[in-house]
């Protein structure tokens, strides 16, 4: 045993020596679109007792803003501790270091308002003396303040561009009033093409939930709650504001003590994930030792990496709460045309959902497979599903073929659910098995995701005709006892992805063809303190559409009229201009426009119509299909990952010249990527043309048949919108345009 321990320690030492630091590896992996936002949590004790540390924070940001590519700085409130002149002098001295170096904003916390920072009123006289509107209104990023208080900087917003995306930072007062949330809704709604970061003093709590009734330090417990407009805590902000907008991506907050850390990923009404993070260090030595939160945002990689750094100590915190990464994050320009997804099932087990406190689970069937410490004890208590029995089998050491208890959703239609995402908030104060089951048909056929803290694993299983097989295994503690976390499963076709708090557990999709449909279940093994909440099942197909247009009146198209949301580009000069229109629910291009000459096979100049919504230029991995017809016999096709007239991909079919061709155009230079010598289509016949572009792989299909036989690999363009194309073809018809989001297999 001693030898084994020695070898283990030696391996760990070697691993430490050869593994680069977290910060260095982050820097090396970042794409050209990556940038940082610096977050200053509660500085109240720095302003009152350690001004030199406060100054060290902002001095480091100013001196390193270019090297670190810090594009914006936010303060989460509680700038001071006692709302007095001496502390505001310290705060002003520290923050003004950033003036004309990097844009920033501030907001008032509870210690910044009222008598002595007591938040007995919303008096922000000193706050606005040292940080008046006039200090910010002349900056490039300034957007505005709460319209009913034009001379106060208590509620404000700024905009900037970084990583190819337009961003809006909205800073809100402590426990924002109802009229302030009304204004916030208007601001976000009027900026549909901006990704929004909401910053407010109190929102998340340290138990990984939003600040809510019964939590300490709730805004409702302060004097300001009795003033006109009242207050809103984190959960109320979510319900009244945050979840209502498809373009809100993050919420940042401080205020809460305990360990001062918490985070949660929630899904808004439009299917968008909102990353909510609490960071507060004030209760630690020296008022927090100057730790700041750095968010490394990489739109191209789809990641948000969080680190916690102290310029005063020149060190990072490396525990799981202070160093983490979200993957598969939508960070490009938001889709302003997004529609609310179709929810197959949603339940927070509240009384409003016809759940009785301390009652039974309606619409769920309990199955006990374990025989030791049976039976199970499932119930609904205080708005959560609770399983409080230690039921298990066959024995304590078991890590496979375990028999516990589960509750499956028993509505008949649920057994026909095919492609969906299934998420829930879980918590276990015990340390044994807990998880989710999906595509469940019966006790002998299903998939199961199980996490175990004691035995240190996260496992994905399939059960087929009663036989269990492990599909994926990660050897690490599956969760932290007593800490809430979100599990999400995405199952589409034969691909399964699993996320814990937004992080892909197994790193890539798991491929399996065993089960194509089925309901969902909550699972427990040897775990007598299980809690499940916020169960959500969402239709993957409906939620993945980036664009769907059949050019009918229902889609606000005018028959025999122009194409809304599309821009026409004529490159050909012979028989120009083009003639694009919508006629009887189809797009028609009726001009013979072309160039440079009739025999041309390459470098042809025709006409195209590209979809011009700004969010579409950030589309990356997608399938693009359209029903196409030509009664002429010349060039017709689709363009994709279009950025401008000099940068795009193009799939062109020609009947007369007998070809299918895939081109890339980079800085105006055209290159053929693939060529098939046969008539591209039959005149007068409808056909479906589809392009799938995922990462660096391109596939093209005609009526479901792979045109070139295998994926074409090219790295030239990573994102862009789509276009309809015609060359020398006065009878080109396009209909049923559909763009669907696709997921990379290697992400």
UniProtKB/TrEMBL annotation:
PANTHER family: METALLOPHOSPHOESTERASE, CALCINEURIN SUPERFAMILY, SECRETED PROTEIN. The lineage of its organism: Bacteria, Bacillati, Bacillota, Bacilli, Bacillales. This is 3',5'-cyclic AMP phosphodiesterase CpdA. InterPro entries: Calcineurin-like_PHP, Metallo-depent_PP-like, STPP_CPPED1. Residues 35-256 form the Calcineurin-like phosphoesterase domain. It comes from Mesobacillus foraminis. GO terms for molecular function: hydrolase activity. It comes from the Bacteria.
